[in-house]
Amino acid sequence: MIKIFNKWDTNFEVNDPGLKPYISLKPKIIPRNSGKHAGKPFYKSQINIVERLINHLYVPGHRGKKHFLTSDQCTGKSLTNYKIVKEAFEIIEKKLGKNPVEVFVRAIENTALREEITSFQVGGIIVRKAVVSSPQRRVDLALRLIVQGAYQKAFNNPKSMAQALADEIIATYNYDTSGSLAIREKERIEREAASAR
Q: What are the distances in angstroms from CA 129 to CA 116, 132, 134, 189?
């Protein structure tokens, strides 16, 4: 049986029916495809979800069009991010005693936004309106929020990135608003969307 990092299996289901086609749990020993699916429509949905997390670690500082925090130290070899994710998963398994890939998928389900706000111009004023997020975007934003939350915990901090990522995934899995920056940001956006309906 093929396992992620040759350690953890993916014999479980995605609970959220909207996200199920967009979270790939295709078993791979090394979650790295070197851009094999690039340029194809919805290619991201065919990439293993752990590999998508590794890819998001390259630019964790992005928020909007600017770097919220500098992420110059995150560039480099894929192997660095591969090791960070593997170490984070080992920490999760040690703390919770559960399959860390399953914990990570449940964390994505908890973080996935249902509603967002879009702005458009009507005459001379800008109107904000709540819109339903597409499933592909829900997964992308969940990954981005988890990585940004972990990066903010590790930035200017003696805590390693692997430890920060493990803490963020565990807090998000437990839906801990005090410990997870991703959950707080999700709730803030959904509150704004509710008021703009």
A: 8, 10, 15, 12
